[in-house]
Amino acid sequence: MRRIVTLCTVVLIFSFSRAYGSGFALYEASVRIAGMMGAYVANGNNVSTVFYNPAGLAQLSGVNLSFGSTFIAPRTTFRGPLPYSVSKSYMDKQTFPVPNFYASYQITGGLTAAIGLYAPYGLGTRWPSDWVGRGEAVNTSIQTIVLNPAVGYRLPIDGVNIMVGGGVMMMVYSQVKLSRAVTDLVPEGTFSLTGDQNDMATGYNVGILIQPNDMISVGFTYRSKFKVEYSGTASFDNLPTSAFPSGITGRTKINMPANLAVGVNVKPIKNLNLEADYVWYEWSSFKRLAINFDQQTALLKNLDIPRNYINSSQIRVGGEYIDAFTKGLTLRGGISYDNSPIPNYTTDPTLPDNNRFAFSGGISYNLTNMVSVDAFYMFIRAKERTVKDSFDGFNGYYNTYADLYGIGFTVNL
Amino acid sequence: MKKFILPLLILSATFLFSSCKDYNSHSLTAVDTGTADFSKYVAVGNSLTAGYSNGALYQEAQKYSYPNLIARQLHIKDFEQPLVSSPGIGNRLEVNNFETFSITANTQMGTPLNATLDRPYDNLGIPGAVLVDYSNDNDQGQLKERATNTNRPDFNPFYQLIMRTELQKAAPNINDLVTALNPTFVTFWLGNNDALGYVLDGGAGRSLLPPATFQALMQRAGQLLGALPKAKVAIMNIPNVTDIPFVFQTNAQLQQEGKITLNAQNQYQLVTPQGNLNIYIKTKDTTRVMMKNDFLLLTAQQYLATADPTKGALITPQGAIPSQYVLDGPAGGQPGSSELEQAIGAVAQYNAAINAVVQANPDKFMLVNINGFFSRIITNYQTKGYGELADGDTLNPVIGSIFGLDGIHPTSKGYALVANEIIDAVNSKYNAKIPDVDVRQIPLGLPWAK
To answer: Using CA atoms, how far apart are residues A366 and A280, in angstroms rounded to an integer?
Structure first.
């Protein structure tokens, strides 16, 4: 275990987990699994099943390690503001590394303990400081890191293979950032708030994996929500100190949604498995973003930004083919469709999301009997979002796509 | 087996390379202007039309002048204004402390940014312009002198900024510039300054333009506007003089702060440790106790701040507030003789003259009742507690909301309300569907002292 803790620390040194998700959920918790579009809840034979379905841990023997990083590069353009302009603005190009780490240890046959470290939520958008929507958003980010000790256990029932699992999710790190221009003043200035989570938010995850025979398995996972409270000192650039005094603390709460996934995995022929998952997020928990300051002034007022997200679902289909062409080479692929949780009227440049397709391909190669290298690439394309009735009148067309890629290693001892 | 995986990868790759660009090209949907033609829009007016705000003309405010906002709603791309860099021309007022709301004047000057335009500006709003400037037959309004002779007390640098080569003529006038632009639509808002100078000086300086003169000048302007070959003209009338914070805010503010109070005899009294004491004002003819309808002007605030009642200031006839700080109201003298009644009466007659010109040529002219708009926001404020609810923004007719720091000119949000009032009137007259400006997306534009 000491070794595991050390490794966790190493992973934490990365700059992590600012990314781009359906809403701000991230499902790319493993390089390997992302290659098959995260369709994995009914599979679970890799240690990263800590995230996807902790019941799968019961299948693992010995000691297993998996670690890597996904890099997320979202790109968005805005055309507007409507109704008087369709000028195009480009979001700044950023690439966010989202590392992950998993380790498991088989205690006895059918009982395996594990630990995972990943980022289930995150977003990062940055627009030029002089862009037309600077009063809405310049820089916005949410970062999370969850530490997830978990166990998987095979029920001692003859004839049918039923595994259960569960764990505690500890949000060991989370930070939100928000900056925007104060456009009511001449000259304009910039308001920024960086808030760190006050107390470690916690949750839990549970899962079931049933394998009636060698051909088919079904899985179910539930991950609870996190209620995260943030506070931090606001900073003001080029703003009058009489209205924006230094040392003001801002506080906010964000409900990160619970989600569940169900899936079916089939192995039609040797070395091939295919899976279809349905993933559901309880995004309706994110109703508003309220930022309260410990001191209000003539110009600095508490913010209450409506969000009113709706529950959303995703269909994920993927598969992997083991020993393709040559022994030790695994190929993966997948497709997903996500429904955006963000209603039209609260869509804004902080997160210009929409319903979207994603396509992925991945590869693993066994370097030795014990060590394999994993890689994937994913392309996400959101449908164009046309906003004409925004809650604060900032309207236009958003187009978003993202490139995701990752590299990692899997070690089975 | 490969057949399962490879199609997936190929599909991925196809989407990858085909879909990195925005899907659709977008163009703006044409604005429905009904039976009005906005292919060439020109705005005529004074500081209110120029986008003057907080005591100066500068580009951050000019961007939100009501003509520019209207042009933007109409998707007019080449609507040209005489932009001036910050802090502009005219000693811009700036907040230097938001806690005490103290204000300073910035004595720096901006420079013209669009001075080489080889045609007249589409926004011909000239701060300080008066009605005679539109026609200025035989230079009867001495526009040329006021524009060029820096020694005159009424010298106005804005004529040079906006009229430029027109000033080389013997009798320069705004109509020549409008005619050269051959507009299809004109908004016309002149005449405020023919009454405003009198009001700002508390009746102790500039005088009111006699209503008969105003009527003749308005008829002449109507004649010239009517002669523009293609133009329809929206003519704005003039707000009541008491509808600007420069006039009404000081009394209200002092009362709210508990510094003065109104007694049963409708006399204002100064609240002192020795009790409530009468306040004395000077009028043109006499010195008397300040009554309910006497308005302390915004300029009085500085005077009041230094006045010391323990030495007799304010509360004795000898310490009476000088006439230029008070717009005195009716107090039992000859009916109609007070400054307030004089100004109100003049504006009413000006508006009657404007109305007559519009009525005489309804095919070409329409009225925009800006007077009614300002009355409405004041009445709303007094009776409902807000001036105007605009797209969820609550705006009040006070300094820092609808009005800027000079207490006379709107903020950018205030100008957006004016733009919407004009747009609504045009929509109704010409069966048009020009969208209103979304006031939430317009900044207040309050200058602050760095």
So the answer is: 34
